[in-house]
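Now for one specimen:
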Amino acid sequence: MPPVADPNVLVGINTGDDCAAYRISDDLAIIQTVDFFTPVVDDPYDYGAIAVANSLSDIYAMGARPLFALNVVGFHSKELPLEILTQIMRGGVDKAREAGIDIVGGHTVDDKEPKYGLAVTGMIDPADIVYNSTAQVGDVLFLTKPLGIGVITTAIKRGLAGGPVVERAVEVMCALNLAASEAMVSVGINACTDITGYGLLGHMGEMTRGSGVGARIHARDVPVMQAARDLIGADLKIAPGGTVNNLEYVSSFVDFDPSISEAERLLLADAQTSGGLLISCPPDKADELEAALHEAGTIVAARIGVMKTEDDIGRIDVVP
């Protein structure tokens, strides 16, 4: 894409940030994002709710407030009962209302493979935008949801996971990042992004490169769903194609300690759906942020590493 020329565009594509931001006035900016994907679970209602939670996450990662959303739908009405689409959209509407917004319309195309998501519009004071490119050396890194969703959803598709494993995965994916966003904004942090398709290491790489710093994370401190550990420990081939591609991609800027197993590496690169926030917090505010996240009821409030010297811009060390 050509460079953006409009000076009112505060956030474009340059740093791979979560949303576009456009200045309306000195104290008001519009935040916008769009995201959609194919089903990750069998239940259409859950799929709709997960898709909406995932779409809203970009808004929350930038510390903004969503205003309204539009549906983005692909559906093959000649092959699938319309009741399935009704349930998908009902799940989406209920999750949007949990977030305090309405879905006010949208667009549907005929598509043999179902797809669902949202285009979301939000607002924020330009001075309050949380970027993914403003982390500082010494910052403490927090993660607010466990990894492993990609492995588990692949197992679901292959009929290798059910019952409590599916229920827990749905619970994690459906959880809004609203509370985590409000907690980090209240404390005041340096940078944030959400963890989705590029996995923890991929999105962390965007953050380090954009910020001009390096990072070190401790694999033992990164929260991972136990079912995902069990599944990939039994068979590395359970890792989805996106996760394998992620690990290959990050190999150019991630240095793994030799003791980190292939299974652990895949989990750190696992492609997430509706993952948590990765927050880069000043060290003197780390205790306050951890307490705020716990009080907000985030699934986890895990300290997973630190931002380190500018001499290693974009590089990530993974140690035990």
